[in-house]
Amino acid sequence: MWGTGINPAPPPTTVLAVQTQTATSTVTQTITEAPSETPTGDPTTPPTSPTLEPPPPGGLAITIRIGTSGKIGPAEYRAGSLPGARATVYDETGQYLSDGCYPTWVLKRGTTVIKTSRNETCGGSFSFSSDSLKVRGLYHLTVSVITDAGPKGTSTADFTVT
Length: 162
Description:
Blueprint: E1 60-66, E2 71-73, E3 76-77, E4 85-91, E5 101-109, E6 112-118, E7 125-126, E8 137-147, E9 152-161
Parallel strand pairs: 3-9
Antiparallel strand pairs: 1-4, 2-3, 4-7, 5-6, 5-8, 8-9
């Protein structure tokens, strides 16, 4: 007869406890600088920004854009990453330069030169070598540009490798 048999026991059930934690952190930093009558030390170049400041008369406005591969924070990259970089160059009239424009790239960690490269146009890019960013530290990527028309310029992007 059907229905008079013994029903098998249900399979064993495992219950897992789940604990969720939420952490919130807020960091606020205020920096106040007073103007100084006499400059001290060498001028420093702040990290690049998407806004372009006009160049000095007879100079060039240069912005360095470092790629996002391996980027883990503002101006911070993972050790061993290969982000690549490009320079955007404008003359004092605001004209974008690609031809007749010759960049020289220098990548340093502290004062140690890691890699140098030259391009035949400002439309070229800088490629990091596979071992360029292996060591943690503060890096400086500088591009110096000369042009057939005479204007010159230099820009540096500082970033950290962690």
